[in-house]
Write a structure and sequence with these properties.
By secondary structure, the chain is an alpha/beta fold. Helix content is about 45%, strand content about 20%. The longest helix has 21 residues, at about 195-215. InterPro entries: Bact_Solute-Bind_Prot2, Peripla_BP_I, SBP_2_dom, TAT_signal.
Length: about 350
């Protein structure tokens, strides 16, 4: 899997796995980094060794998911006095992302935080940054073999998170349908994104394990819906209309479940099948609240901004190596939606 190294070892780059630092919370990690970067004599507003450093965070698509990521990043940057920039295209385009990352390198920042959504496309930019003496850390998505680049990663462990999602969808399929067979549609907002691919792999693994254990015959199939709601709803409706009886659940790998919810409510189909996905966007949380979405899997986007920034800070000065940090797979459903919504409102 792409983001966890051996917990008992460090690699040649000195990057440590979170699993080797048991019991340490994201808050404690970032707080210790902040303390290391801001001497005791420094006053409020970032008067320490980090003051004035230029740090740029480039994401592959600046959609609604990244709101808390940006806020976490900017909150940390303000605390230590960074010149912080958070940028990304409004919609994903590979060449645009690469160009934005290269332009960020060309502007000679002290540090970069990047998303690496495939195994090769961004490596030239990362290596160019390192050759220029710019400190780099990955956040949100790292993709296979990122460790060979000598960088750490703050984000979810995607295959296990997909297994968690698969178990959730199967539980709700049983609740709504009581069936022993049927198709679980694995939704994707984007083709080729390694995080979505690996979550899908985990969902398929959970379904296979369930079939083996229970003698059921559930199948899985993929549906790429995009991020535009109207287009996504059309694709969802098209798949369902071809064979309504075959569909027992919709298992998104990101926030596709909000599009399924919109469509299901418009067709009076809520409760006819299971529906769940990932992320804590406002429409997803609203869907869990009104029952049109059965669950969502969180990945602590705040930490993907704040903890990534804190680790990059200690990497820049005084020079401690960063380590990979798993931001988890939080199950959010009717039992905890009120508390989670209250929390997320603070970082929206």
């Amino acid at each position: 899997m792409n983001q966890m190294s051996d917990p008992a070892q460090t690699g040649p780059s000195g990057i440590f796995s979170r699993r080797g630092i048991l019991g340490v919370s994201a808050t404690a990690l970032a707080a210790s980094a902040l303390a290391a970067c801001t001497p005791a004599h420094a006053g409020a507003g970032g008067g320490g060794v980090q003051k004035g450093k230029k740090v740029i965070f480039v994401v592959h698509e600046k959609n609604s998911f990244f709101g808390p990521v940006q806020k976490g990043f900017e909150t940390f940057g303000e605390a230590v006095g960074w010149q912080a920039q958070f940028i990304g295209p409004a919609t994903f385009d590979q060449s645009t992302v690469v160009n934005m990352m290269q332009n960020a390198v060309n502007s000679k920042p002290d540090g970069l935080i990047l998303t690496r959504i495939d195994n090769t496309s961004y490596d030239g930019v990362i290596k160019a940054a390192q050759a220029a003496g710019i400190q780099v850390i990955l956040s949100n998505v790292a993709s296979d073999d990122y460790q060979k680049l000598g960088v750490a990663f703050v984000g979810q462990n995607f295959v296990p998170a997909g297994v968690t999602a698969g178990k959730q969808i199967l539980a709700h399929v049983a609740k709504y349908t009581g069936r022993q067979d049927g198709a679980i549609i694995i939704g994707k907002i984007q083709a080729g994104n390694s995080a979505l691919e690996q979550r899908g792999e985990g969902i398929r693994q959970a379904v296979s394990d369930y079939n083996h254990a229970h003698g059921t015959q559930f199948t899985t199939e993929e549906l790429i819906v995009g991020t535009d709601e109207a287009g996504a709803v059309s694709k969802i409706d098209g798949r369902y209309s071809r064979d309504p009886h075959s569909v027992v659940g919709w298992a998104g790998t990101a926030f596709e479940c909000q599009f399924v919810a919109t469509w299901a409510k418009s067709k009076n189909l809520v409760g006819k099948f299971a529906n769940g996905g990932f992320d804590l966007t406002a429409p997803v949380l609203a869907g869990v609240q009104d029952g049109s979405i059965d669950y969502t899997i969180g990945q602590n986007p705040w930490a993907q901004g704040w903890v990534a920034a804190a680790l990059l800070a200690q990497q820049m000065d005084p020079g401690y190596p960063s380590f990979t940090y798993d931001t988890g797979a939080e199950v959010v459903d009717s039992a905890n939606i009120a508390a989670v919504s209250k929390r997320e409102a603070k970082v929206a």
